[in-house]
Write a structure and sequence with these properties.
Layout (H helix, E strand, L loop, with lengths): L4 E6 L3 H13 L2 E6 L5 H16 L5 E4 L10 E4 L15 H18 L4 E4 L4 H12 L6 E3 L2 H16 L6 E2 L2 E2 L7 E2 L5 E2 L2 E2 L6 H12 L1 H9 L5 H15 L4 E10 L5 E12 L2 E5 L6 H18 L5
Helix pairs in contact: 1-2, 1-8, 3-4, 5-6
Length: about 300
Amino acid sequence: MPERRKVTIVGAGNVGATSAQVLAQRDYADVVLVDIKENLPQGKALDINQMGAVLGYEPGVTGSNGYAETAGSDVVVITAGIPRGPGMSRDDLVATNEKIVGSVTEQVVAQSPDAVIIVVSNPLDAMCHVAKNVSGFPKERVFGQAGILDTARFATFIAWETGASVKDVTAVVLGGHGDQMVPVVSATTVGGVPLTKLVDAAAIERMIERTRKGGGEVVELLGTSAWYAPGAAAAQMVDTVMLDEKRVLPCTVLLEGEYGIDGLYMGVPVKLGAGGVEEIVELDLSDQERTWLQESADAVREVVGVLTA
């Protein structure tokens, strides 16, 4: 049989392990789960492999404390870093996670120089800049997962508010992965019906605010960051690249003039395929949404400005 392609996930914490689990169930690639903590990635890999006997997929997950096993990966997902705790903002994570993500990027690039890098570590927008700068890869091959998660939260709240199936909700969230994110109401529908025709302005505002605070809400409840939805969202991006699906998804990419923003990683809709980002899609935004996006860009620039030169 031909050898299966390879995906590496760095960070065997909750998000990384969930992403590995979802990808293993997809059953089209082998997964290498890397973490500095001894026995952790090996134990989680063993558990996921044994789940294959129950759910009917072929086990192909390897746990490692090093990077040799990652050689030749097609996609590398970086989830490594310290998570947020109660009362901690994503900005507080910059100094520590910059070092972690930088070190991880160096090591994965040495083993897989042709890989596509998907960043999940927070603060997401800033960590994308770190991975891009350290790897030296073109922008098409370094991008981040945030918009899919934020959009999933917005869609969930819309389904609950309207009493509709979440499968029929079409939504998109742009901007930085923080409290200034931009749920695009003008592009949001339920079964093809504009959201504005289904609920009043006050309800929409409540859903927007809850979406923006969605990560913090989970942190307050759990005492740590979310992992099921973020892990699944990262796996969806891997699917789209590995299977060359050409899906249009909200991802954090380096903008160079699009949406009037230059030299900054921001969440926007992009077409993903085998080579990574194939196209940046520019939506027609309302004046209010465009203002919010610029405000979000300003907030991201502040965080990126904390990075060391």
